[in-house]
Amino acid sequence: PQRNAFEQIVRSTPFLFLGCSLGKDRTLDVFYDVYSSATAPNHRNYAILPRPAESAMGAPRENFLAARGVFPIWYGDHGDA
User: Distance between alpha carbon 11 and the CA centroid of its chain, in Å?
Assistant: First the structure.
């Protein structure tokens, strides 16, 4: 019942993630299930995250998050811009 309630919240409310690692966990499993369904919400969720140290790491991370409806706002500069 708690998962169903959380799924409804994810479907109806945009999220802003602050201070979260956003790795593979149960929360992002729910986001993946919701955003990979045929009735995925139209709203975006955002996360403020440190820019990956290597530019090659950014694309896989963005793909992982996008599949869960989360779009990163990168901060910091590691000299590879």
Answer: 14
Helices (H), 38-77: 55-66
Q: Are 78 and 53 in contact (CB under 8 A)?
A: yes
**Mean predicted lDDT score pLDDT of the chain:** 89
Q: What phi, psi does 57 have (nearest 5°)?
A: -80, -20
Q: Are 77 and 51 contacting, i.e. CB atoms less than 8 angstroms apart? A: yes
Enumerate the H helices of the chain as residue ranges. Answer: 2-12, 26-35, 55-66
The first and second tokens of residue 80, run together, are 């590879």
Kind of pairing between the strands at 45-50 and 70-75:
parallel
Question: For the segment 43-79, what is each residue's pLDDT rounded down to a tens digit?
Answer: 999 999 988 877 666 788 899 999 999 999 999 875 5
Helix (H) or strand (E) holding 17: strand 16-18
Tokens standing for 69? Answer: 């409806």
